[in-house]
Design brief:
This protein is α/β, with parallel strands linked by helices. The chain has two domains: about 5-230 and about 265-310, Glycerol-3-phosphate (1)-acyltransferase; about 315-385, no CATH class. It has helices spanning about 15-25, 30-35, 45-50, 55-75, 85-90, 105-115, 135-140, 155-175, 195-205, 210-215, 230-245, 250-265, 280-285, 290-310, 315-325, 335-350, 360-385, and strands at about 75-80, 95, 120-125, 145, 180, 220-225, 270-275. The protein has a seven-stranded mixed β-sheet, sandwiched between helices. Helix 11 (about 230-245) packs across helix 17 and helix 14 packs across helix 17. The longest helix is centred in the last third of the chain and has 27 residues, at about 360-385. The chain is globular and about 55 Å long. The two termini are about 40 Å apart.
C-alpha cells in the first residue's frame, strides 16, 4: 500500500504542512483555544511564527515542546521516564500504554522521548474526539493519525485493516515509532487491561503468522503513572450518571471538558516506564496453533508489564489501605498525607455539577475515586506475585 491509501487517516505530509497551517490559523475555534490555554499570548505574532514552520518535526520542536515544558512546569511536579536505551534512538517501536488523559498521555510521552534524544512517534487518536474540523487539522499537523470508531461490522473491519496497514507502514516505510492506547477509551477506574481487539488489529496486516506480524512492530508496553488525575471527579461523575441511568452516554461537550481539565488541572508527579520489547515473549509462542490462546497470552503479558511499571505514590498506598480497611502500607505515608488527600477529595467532589446530589451520591463518588487510586497498586502487587 502507498501513502495515498492512508490519506484520510494519516498525518499531513510535510509538503502540505504550510498550506494546512495557513488554514488552521484562520479558524476562530483555534484562535479561541490558543488564547484560552495561553492567555498572555500575542496571537498575531504567534500566527506569524506558525507560518514560518515547514514540517511536523519543526512544529513539535519549536512550538509543542516549549508549550509542553511550560505546561509541565505549571501543572505537574515533574515528569520522568525510565527504560529508554540506545535502541530507542535507532529503531522504531510501538509504545502501547495504559490511558489516563485524552491529550497528554501521548504528548508527554513524546516530550520525554525528545528529552532522551529520541525522535517523537506518531500518535493514534479516536475520531470521536475530532469534534471540530480544526481539531483534526491540528492533530494531523502534530503527527497524529486517526482511529475510526463506532462503525458497523463490515466498515469496522475495513477500518481496522487500514489502520493496521498504516501502523505497519509507519515502521517499514516511514521509519516512525507509534503510540497507541491498550484499549479504546480511558480506563475510568484505572484498572488497566489490554483489549484483544487492539492486538488483533495490530496483527491484521502482517500476514498469516501472528508472531512475525507483531515482531515487526517492536511493541514496548509503557506505563503512565499520574500522582493525581485532574479528571478523577469527572470520571466519578460519569460512574454516578451510569448508576442513575445505565443508558447514559457522554456528550461531545463532556469530552471537551475532559480535554480542558486534563490539560490545565494539577497532576502532581508523572512517570513513564518503558518495558522491553515483547519480541522475546513472542518467540516463545511459535509452537502454539490456537490463535485465541496466542492473543490471550500477549494481552496478559502486556498487562503484567504495564502493571509492574506503575510508579506508586503515597496517595495510592492511602487508597489501597482505605479500600481494604487495613494499615498494610501505613509506613508509606504520614497522617499529614492522609489529611491532605481527604481535603483533595472534598475539593474535587465539590466541583461536580449535577443536580440533586445526595450524601449517598457523594459517598459513592468518593468510593470510586479511592478505587481509581488504589487499582494501580492492586494490579502491581498481583503482577509482581506472578513473576
Amino acid at each position: 500500500m502507498t501513502k495515498e491509501d492512508f490519506r484520510d487517516i494519516a498525518p499531513f505530509d510535510d509538503s502540505e504542512f504550510k498550506e494546512k497551517m495557513a488554514s488552521l490559523v484562520n479558524e476562530p475555534g483555534f484562535e479561541h483555544a490558543v488564547k484560552y490555554v495561553l492567555p498572555m499570548v500575542d496571537y498575531p505574532a504567534f500566527v506569524q511564527q506558525l507560518l514560518t514552520i515547514e514540517s511536523k518535526d519543526a512544529f513539535q520542536r519549536n512550538i509543542m515542546v516549549p508549550f509542553l515544558e511550560m505546561l509541565a512546569q505549571k501543572t505537574t511536579s515533574g515528569i520522568t521516564m525510565d527504560g529508554i536505551d540506545d535502541c530507542h534512538r535507532k529503531d522504531t517501536f510501538t509504545y502501547i500504554s495504559n490511558h489516563r488523559d485524552i491529550v497528554l498521555d501521548a504528548s508527554f510521552l513524546n516530550l520525554c522521548l525528545l528529552r532522551q534524544g529520541c525522535r517523537t512517534g506518531e500518535i493514534a487518536l479516536g475520531d470521536n474526539l475530532l469534534i471540530y474540523d480544526w481539531i483534526e487539522r491540528l492533530v494531523k499537523l502534530n503527527k497524529g493519525f486517526i482511529v475510526k470508531r463506532n462503525l458497523r461490522m463490515l466498515k469496522a473491519f475495513e477500518a481496522a485493516k487500514q489502520l493496521s496497514a498504516y501502523i505497519r507502514y509507519c515502521h517499514t516505510d516511514k521509519h516512525e515509532s507509534v503510540w497507541i492506547a491498550q484499549r479504546e477509551g480511558r480506563a475510568k477506574d484505572s484498572n488497566d487491561r489490554t483489549q484483544e481487539s487492539v492486538i488483533k488489529m495490530l496483527a491484521l496486516a502482517g500476514g498469516d503468522s501472528i508472531v512475525d506480524s507483531l515482531m515487526t512492530l517492536n511493541i514496548c508496553p509503557t506505563t503512565i503513572s499520574y500522582e493525581y488525575d485532574p479528571n478523577d471527579y469527572l470520571k466519578a461523575t460519569e460512574f454516578l450518571c451510569k448508576r442513575r441511568n445505565p443508558e447514559y452516554v457522554k456528550s461531545q461537550n463532556d469530552d471537551l471538558l475532559s480535554m480542558e481539565t486534563g490539560l490545565l488541572g494539577f497532576k502532581g508527579r508523572i512517570h513513564y516506564q518503558v518495558a522491553p520489547s515483547i519480541n522475546g515473549m513472542l518467540e516463545g509462542l511459535r509452537g502454539i496453533t490456537d490463535k485465541n490462546e496466542i492473543f490471550s497470552s500477549i494481552c496478559a503479558h502486556i498487562d503484567r508489564c504495564i502493571h509492574r511499571g506503575y510508579h506508586i505514590f503515597p496517595v495510592n498506598y492511602i487508597c489501597y489501605d482505605r479500600l481494604n480497611s487495613s494499615h498494610q502500607f501505613a509506613y508509606k505515608y504520614t497522617p499529614r498525607d492522609v489529611e491532605a488527600f481527604d481535603r483533595y477529595l472534598d475539593t474535587q467532589i465539590a466541583k461536580v455539577r449535577l443536580t440533586d446530589v445526595t450524601d449517598d451520591d457523594r459517598q459513592f463518588m468518593r468510593h470510586m475515586m479511592v478505587t481509581m487510586y488504589a487499582n494501580p497498586l492492586i494490579n502491581k502487587l498481583k503482577a509482581e506475585e506472578e513473576q
